Amino acid sequence: MHPVELIGVSKSYDKAEAVLTDIDLSIEEGEFFVLVGPSGSGKSTLLRMIAGLESITSGTIRMNNKIVNHLPPKDRNLSMVFQNYALYPHLTVEQNILFGLRAKKVDKAEQQRRLKETAEMMGLTDLLTRKPKQLSGGQRQRVALARSVVSEAPLCLMDEPLSNLDAKLRAHMRIEIRRLQKKLGLTMIYVTHDQVEAMTMGDRIMVLNDGQIQQIGKPIELYNEPANLFVASFIGSPKMNMGQAMIDNQHLIIEDTVNLPLNVAEIPQVIKRKGITVGVRPEHLLYAKPEEANLFLEIINVEHLGHETLLTFEVGTQLWTAKWLGQWMLEVGQRVPLKLLTKHISFYDSQSGQLMQAPLNKSQLEVVAL
Amino acid sequence: MKDTAVILSDEKQIDVFKAVKKQKLVRFLKGMLFLMPSIVLFSLFLFYPLGRTIYLSFFLTDGSGDPTVFVGWENYLNLFTSPIFLKSLRATFLFVLYTVPGTILVSLFLAILANEKLKGIGIFRTMYASTMGISVAAASVFWMFLFHPTIGWLNQILQALGFNSIGWLTDPQWALLAVSISTIWMNLGFTFLIMLGGLQSIDRYLYESADIDGASYFYQLRRITLPMLSPTLFFVITVTFINAFQTFGQIDMLTRGGPQNETQLIVYSIYQEAFMNYQFGPASAQAIFLFIVILLLTLIQFKLGERKVHYQ
Fold this sequence. Notes:
Largest interface: A-B, 23 and 20 residues
CATH topology of the largest domain in chain A: Rossmann fold
Strand order of the largest sheet of chain B: 1-2
Strand content of chain A: 25-35%
Structural class of chain B: mainly alpha
Shape of chain A: elongated
CATH class of the largest domain in chain A: Alpha Beta
Distance between the termini of chain A: 38 Å
Shape of chain B: flat
CATH class of the largest domain in chain B: Mainly Alpha
Number of domains of chain B: 2
Structural class of chain A: alpha+beta
Oligomer: heterodimer
Order of helices and strands of chain B: HEEHHHHHHHHHHH
CATH topology of the largest domain in chain B: MetI-like fold
Order of helices and strands of chain A: EEEHEEEHHHEHEHEEHHEEEEEEEEEEE
CATH architecture of the largest domain in chain A: 3-Layer(aba) Sandwich
CATH superfamily of the largest domain in chain A: P-loop containing nucleotide triphosphate hydrolases
Radius of gyration of chain A: 24 Å
Strand order of the largest sheet of chain A: 6-7-8-3-9-10
Strand content of chain B: under 5%
Distance between the termini of chain B: 60 Å
Largest sheet of chain B: 2 strands, antiparallel
Number of strands of chain A: 21
């Protein structure tokens, strides 16, 4: 029994352009599920369809094995946090939190009990008499969360709840939301355009583009084996380095400028010899001693982040980035020796954009608990 | 060396001070230059006539409006002993009492209806707002036909339903009500449009959130729509209120203050006193009195409104 199940769900406006096509998806109980995609990909529409705020053109939505296509939002037993929080500006924090309970005529004593519990959990006890405009962004965010918590609905939907916060607060709230979800055992569907949020928070992620599912999987799976070029370029920061390539006589030629020796037997799933796009993660563009290097590139930009250094190179028409740990004092214009291993390269079909061969060597490291 | 340096910097500071002062002056003059057109227009058509009216209200005048005898407060004192003026004061307050709540309630109802997203709602919105485009004179003519004792539709409907016909504009009991009804109709377009605008500017997320929380339509209306609309409501109430005190056109067209001075609102009374009886002094006193009444009531409204209105 899944808390939410979508079967062949589609959405189009005015019978014209499809916003979402053929979405199949089941969400597990107690799961933190992230919908991620660029703006206009249909992720918010999908969430609103699950909430019942938007009608479904075709397909079925089930919740706990019951079809809910026809049910209004209030009968779906869920709560939702909106991007702009949707706090009532004329009501105090307390009235905002209790709005839903009062509307449903929940018993007064029960209201107070839940209010007290929630306010303590969210650290809002001292703010209950304030109006939303007297609160900071982070406090408003917590009121919005409290409103969702107080409803005690088992399913919580969030529509880009952190996009109005500054970077530092966002990082903090990511952890708070994640902790809250685990503590209360909520099933969460979380929409974001920020792949960092998706990677750090999700148990599973669904990448959406142009109304179509690109890939569903665990964050690490999406990072290690992006199913197509879109996911490859969307997940990861800095993004994966891409280049047009062909294989010629045991050599891989990238962007007509890089020539690497290659053992074709290592990549049995790559049958094509032309029309290949290769992808390399920035951390796999390694520094090598000149005698071990198989690639020399000229630096066109250096970014010092303190704990790591980002270097930008020009490869044909593409800009490639390398991410090296530590502080590397290098100058623009220098040629640096690099090592690029076949086992780190992903191979895509340029035409279909689909993955042909994932990197052979995963970045996963086994850690033995002490 | 050190001393000279200090003196130098002091001198510089004084220069800076002067320069800032000069800049402020230039900025002020520039600002006044931009305000000039409105200051000139307001002075010519508002401040000067107001001053002149106050001046005249202390005099008796000849037929051409020139002051002749200074009478002090007598013009004002006479107002409150004149039964006709007291009656017109009563009529004005009753008129305000009928038209302001009437206009607000009807247009609020229409605006809430027209705010629904339905097919062809544009037709209704246009229809409801259309009275805004009809002049008072034209609207009065419509209503004159509707109120007509024999061929008017209203009486024909009454008769068809088996009631006696009513002398809408001739019966002292009905005349003020009839004028109020036609005024409410004339006000509707404007107030409807402003309120619809107010309703549409309410964030739809608030309603969606309430939908998910399970709030009923009327609960949402009471707890979200009305409080969020309060600034618009306040504006509309104030404007309708002031307009009601200043009503003239429809009175002149429909009843000319009759029957038995039942519909003699203050502005019409001022008009009669000044341009029919050529009593510019007492007319000015009435005008100033009306000005003070509107000013005071509006101030009270603002004081009361502050507590109830939620500005975002």
